[in-house]
Amino acid sequence: MKWKNRGHEYDDMYQKISEKNRFYLFGAGDYGKQFMRIFKSEIQIKGYIDSDISRHGNMIDGKMCNSLEDISLGENDGIIVTMSQAARVSALEQLRALEYRKNTDYFMIEEFLSVYHVYKNDKVYFSSISFLPSTACNLNCRYCLNFNPFAKQFYVREWKELVQDIDLFFSCVDHIMLFHVSGGEPMLYKYTADLLEYIDKNYGDRIDTLRTVTNGTIVPKEEILQKLSMCDVELTVDDYRNKVPQFNTQFEELIRKLEEYHIKYYINKADSWIDLAPERTDYTSWTEDKLITHRDNCNQSWQELRGGKIYSCNYAAYASVAGIAGEQDLEEIYDLSDFSSDKKKELVEFRLGYTTKGYTGFCRKCRGFTSENSEGVEPAVQLTQRI
Fold first, then answer.
1. Domains in the chain, ordered, with CATH?
2. Quick one: what percent of the chain has pLDDT higher than 90?
3. pLDDT, tens digit (0-9, with 9 covering 90-100), for 33-46
């Protein structure tokens, strides 16, 4: 989105939020449950909506779950879309088919969360941030969203840089729903446990969920497991055993160890990934207006924290690190060292996708998380060599 009225882009949206008496949460999964925990005492939540028919008619977190077609939206009712960027493509199509209007009848979780808090409470509250200490990984997945198969070498950060980024970030941001330490494969990075320990000890009271991820192929050393067990952290264990069966034993041992050390985890068995297809996409002939529309239609909602800056699209940042997108220009970056208390709404707007240009350089090479690119690809397909 392109800035037109910096610091006031969400004035109208907050007015619409203020007019609502109750809300339905569209998405009864991880994001929906996190949102429920945060807002159950702030707003009236009527119930859940979900596309999974097995959830219909069931109580979740004390609220009834229905299909979208089964609810009747009153004049002062609203819907908050509480699902991940890939999952929400179909949900948004359903809402538009029923002629519901964005930021009037329904709101996106990231926008609602941040806009509500900065306007009502004068607090900078982020939905999420991606923090990537290293791209080093022992797999070579064809559709890796870090674009590792394109990289000539892994990117690995030093400990001092990590601490500086964390401290600067929390000097600007009051609270965050999900702080995600990503990779690469975090269990290969030597400071992962120390990093999580540092974040939890110093800023844990300002984080709703501190999370990291593993591809399930590595069993951490005992000292790492011990440190993780002392942190309030969740571990996402990706289950790729169908594609890398040679690691089945390690996967089973990892789960056993997580149970032994009482480390919170959940197993993610993704049915499909998305292919952003940077090697096959060429939008270099597109006008700026068309690129802005392309970025606006993209449901990508993550940004990356690195080097004291927030990058407006984490996948564009990953592509730059991998060497396939060139250098990112200044319009795509928010320098946290320039932040001051009178820029809270501006920082929130940037986190929600507003920039000077309204698109990233990588948009010229990326298909995006759009309805035109909703067809999934097989997860964790391994390549024998770099692309």
1. 11-120 (3.40.50.720), 123-387 (3.20.20)
2. 86
3. 889 988 988 999 99
